Amino acid sequence: MIAELGHFALILALVLALVQGSLPLAGAHRQEQGRDGGGWIALAGPAALGQFVFVILAFAALTALFVQADFSVMVVAANANSKLPLIYKISAVWGHHEGSMLLWVTILALFGLCVALFGSNLPATFRARVLGVQGLISAGFLFFILLTSNPFARLFPAPADGSDLNPLLQDPGLAFHPPFLYVGYVGFSMAFSFAIAALMEGRVDAAWARWVRPWTLAAWCALTMGIAMGSWWAYYELGWGGFWFWDPVENASLIPWLVGTALLHSAIVVEKRDALKSWTVLLAILAFSFSIIGTFLVRSGVLTSVHAFATDPARGVFILVLLVAVIGGSLVLYALRAPKLTGGGLFSPVSREGTLLLNNLLMTAAAGTVLLGTLYPLFLDAVGGPKVSVGPPFFNATFLPLMAPTVVVMALGPFLSWKRGDLAGAFSRLYVALGLALLVALAAWYFHRGGPVLALVALGAAAWLFFSTLAELADRLRLFRAPWRESLERIRSLPRAAYGMTLAHAGLALVIAGATGASLWREEHIQSSLPGDAVEVGGYEVTMEGVRQVEGPNYTADQGQFTVRREGREVMVLEPEKRVYPVAAMPTTEAAIHTTGRGDLYVVLGDAAEDDSGAWVTRLFFTPLVVWMWIGSLVMVAGGLLSLSDRRLRVGAPRRRKKATV
């Protein structure tokens, strides 16, 4: 009964999405033509509310089916088991294609509801168009779910127990990682809807930029958190000691993040200087377009095999039609309307606008490079060409050179004036930052006894960005250049968005430093170890004490004990595991990690020797600075949230001043 209720709720949600995506748009057009369309426009809010109610009801129904372990439902039988812990029964709701698409639609409906509830400051016709576009997107996804990916399909006869959730997904990091990613992906739909609505009305101005930036910033924060959590999970769960492998699934999230970052900065130019209008609208379209391309590539199985469309023709054809409708239709509208978006705000190449535009171009070029490297093997296979693999060497050789100038420009741009800047003057205010960056590079060279030159350059660039960001904040506050009372007053009056920008840029510097240490200074030792054997790594002495068997809620494991000493003093005991999940018949690796600010000691227990000697394959890594990568990611998200809390960047109207009393 619960499954049928959820299915019926999705059908009602589709009906309301069609209403939301048609009548408000027609009403806005009628009103624009001087005819009465107010009644149709007024339907946008209630339709968005109703759609959300029925979608959340369907999502709750699917969650209940997983919690109750109702194996008469096909997706529950395929992705859950009676012994599965409760947290993973809940996360299993979105741990498969059908459930993930339902989660996508749920978040999409939630964003539409937020516009309906909190977008009262928007002009009525514009708000109707935004909600109308959201309704059309929802209708497309709901059609896709109901026709090709029904999560409530029954299974007869029902098995006594279900298959297990993929053991790699039975982890807290993977329980929360997909929802954050999806909030980021779907959040860019709001920027897309605002862009399409603006093209329909032929109006992009500073007010539009203020409206679109909060939604873009919220999506960017969620996507940043999702990418960081996925990277962290890959680092500690997969047992290889790395955090990023340029896997197509990873690339599918990085591409919209790069375009969304460019969109955030471009919207600033629209708001401040009334320039880059058509470019900003295009970025809004591309950010969401890449989001849905990445989602469908990952969830449809195309990245595993380009022939996945052939194994499910209905799903493949629907995907292609939806992609053509959303991306093709929006780009056609852009081609027709964008030339009319003339703007003023002329500026010199050496200016704050110029640096923002340069960073925009670098980030979009980097996104295009990642997209090419991800899709090229698929296209080549689709046309019958040879199978090729595009891996880290290609991306490191193309992506990193594009992003390196971005760091320099990010540090320099805030010191340039709008319209026309003084490059020499900007550099003259960064001597201290440059000196500190060189000092950091020399310190790294000293402590690591040289090391790769690229590592020293990258760490120096990270320090340059970090100290330049602090110098820009100090310049705003006039620290050491004005009386302390004036600086204190500036600290109080400086907008939160300014502090948010400082945190975001400083966080990126920490990410660069962490990624540099983890990639270029990592120590790795692989050996066959007997109890009592010791290995020196990263200044630690790691002694294997033995291996014992332990039982988990739905797995068995071999657990190793490794005593860690530093300078003869015991630091701690690490206990990595080699788990086996009987239902899924799949082993997993659980690394044990000792984290400090200097770096991570990372211990992995491999397979037992086949000769019954009692030896085990062990892998030990020391990864310098890696923790700063995730600390930096959290700092970036904190900066975005702090900026989002600035009233000037929220959808609500600016604060009205009280009338003076006489």
Comma- or semicolon-separated keywords:
662 residues; alpha+beta; 6-stranded antiparallel β-sheet; 22 helices; 10 strands; disordered C terminus
3D structure, described in words:
This protein is globular. The strands form 2 sheets. Strands 2, 3, 4, 5, 6 and 7 form a 6-stranded antiparallel sheet that branches. Strands 1-10-9-8 form a 4-stranded antiparallel sheet, with helices on one face. The C terminus is likely disordered. Helix 4 runs antiparallel to helix 7, helix 7 crosses helix 9 and helix 8 crosses helix 9. It has 22 helices and 10 strands. The protein has 4 domains: 164 residues, no CATH class; 225 residues, no CATH class; 113 residues, no CATH class; 102 residues. Strand 3 and strand 4 form a beta hairpin. Helix content is 62%, strand content 11%. With 662 residues, it is an alpha+beta fold.
